Fold:
Amino acid sequence: MNEWARVTGASLAGSVALITGSGRGLGRAIASRLADLGADVAVHDISETAPAQFGEEKSLTGLAERLAAQCGVRTTAVLGDIADEAQVAAMVAATEQALGPVSILINCAGGDIGAAGGKPDPNGGLDISLADTQAIINRNFIGTMLVCRAVLPGMAARQSGSVINFGSLNGHRAVTSEVVYGCMKAAIVHYTRCLALEMRPHGVRVNVVSPGPAMSARFLATRPTDPAMMGDGPSLDRYATPEEIAGVVAFLAGPDSRFVSGQVVRIDGAAGLYPA
Ligand SMILES: NC(=O)c1ccc[n+]([C@@H]2O[C@H](COP(=O)([O-])OP(=O)(O)OC[C@H]3O[C@@H](n4cnc5c(N)ncnc54)[C@H](O)[C@@H]3O)[C@@H](O)[C@H]2O)c1
Structure:
């Protein structure tokens, strides 16, 4: 257990967390943080090798084994395309068979990734291809919805659970690129509010985080970045670190936020308060 958990008592021991898209990037930092706080953790990705795409891990199984050894928690590695209902059912069943019922669900898988795997080009509201549009809808809104549909009924039956979905700063402001992606993140924000209301009588909390630009390896590898925005100094005029996203998610996952539901937490250093 880390120092923060020891001092604050914010332990997640006894929890079972499924974090989609946690082989790399922000999800990987979240899996690491939750395991550090004592949660048993299911890491998930679309393939065993997706975590290696930008050099963060050799394999999903390797990540699960490392977290178990480092944090002394139970872990498992599950695979599945979140846009495929049968694969989602299988990955949730595999998680629950290995670790028990899911009490924390983090829907982190997603991104502005088109049909061919990279960023759509063109990527505006009128010129993006239909294939890229459908891929982004599936990877973000449909995927988040399918995983919620597979996990939340069990949480409702058990009268407890914490769900954290992933929006984006681009879901809150008008943009001229990443338009479809921004629309789907806005849809996830509103879906979260509706689910929070639906789950309220059942004691299940549903919140959404909306990061601004954050230094996942894919973020750094797939666009021009500003060196002046790197680092983690006191200025808020910079990119977020993955650990800064993970800290907010850990708060929403755990007992310190037990009366918080239906909320949107923008993790953007107030960038979204100003015109883009
Ligand atoms: N990095 C940022 O600047 C930023 C900003 C705002 C929001 N976000 C959101 O945060 C989340 C994580 O982003 P990241 O930067 O860590 O990206 P990333 O590409 O490193 O991580 C996304 C993960 O989701 C997985 N994934 C993608 N499509 C999938 C599918 N159909 N089925 C299963 N797994 C799938 C990927 O393989 C990967 O492991 C995404 O939802 C993204 O939209 C990121």
Remarks:
- The pocket of nicotinamide-adenine-dinucleotide is lined by residues 21, 23-27, 45-46, 50, 81-83, 108-111, 139, 143, 166, 168, 211, 213-214, 216, 218-219 (CB under 6 Å).
